[in-house]
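Annex B. Sample input.
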Amino acid sequence: MKKIILLCVVAFSMIGAEAQTKKGKKVKKAPNKEAVAKARYNKAEAQKKLMRDSLIIGLRMEDSIRLAVDSISDFQKDSMSLVYRENGLKNIDSLKNVRYGLIIKNREDADKMDKTQMDINSAAKLSDYQSKQVKYINQTYSDKAKMIVQGNDPQTKKQELVVLNEERKIKLRTVIGKSRERKLESERKDFVKKNGADEATAWIDIAESVAKNK
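Annex B, continued. Sample output.
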């Protein structure tokens, strides 16, 4: 009987000790599926945000580079445009200067021709009316002579100038008479000898020389 009681005590002791051991140990809980899923979602969102932020930074850098390139391009265009404008203005100024120079020269030549004609007419004792008529005739035939000189071969030019000069003399004779026309021509030749050939009437000397050598 005592043995049975002793066995029971030992058995209860062992059961109590095992229960105490189980109580002392921490029991691991099964993982919460909702928490795991939420953690995975948060991690994925964090990765997406990181990628999105990196993409935004990259795009901003591209925009900055593009703006810088555009600024350089605009500056180059403006600089080139400024150069073109400056060169264009210089060219315009040059053309203006050339045209102005031609206008001044033509005016000076016209004034010189008028003075020469007036001196010759005065030496030939022509009236004011006769002087105006002679000036008009000489100017008309000088313009025709310029057109002849610009074309044809040299020999043809000379022959045409001879014909043109004869027509001029006939026109002068109808206005101032034959004797006065001869006097006028004599005064013109004397003027050329003293002052040099007049550019506007130099063709007359060529025509006279050709006619004399026929």
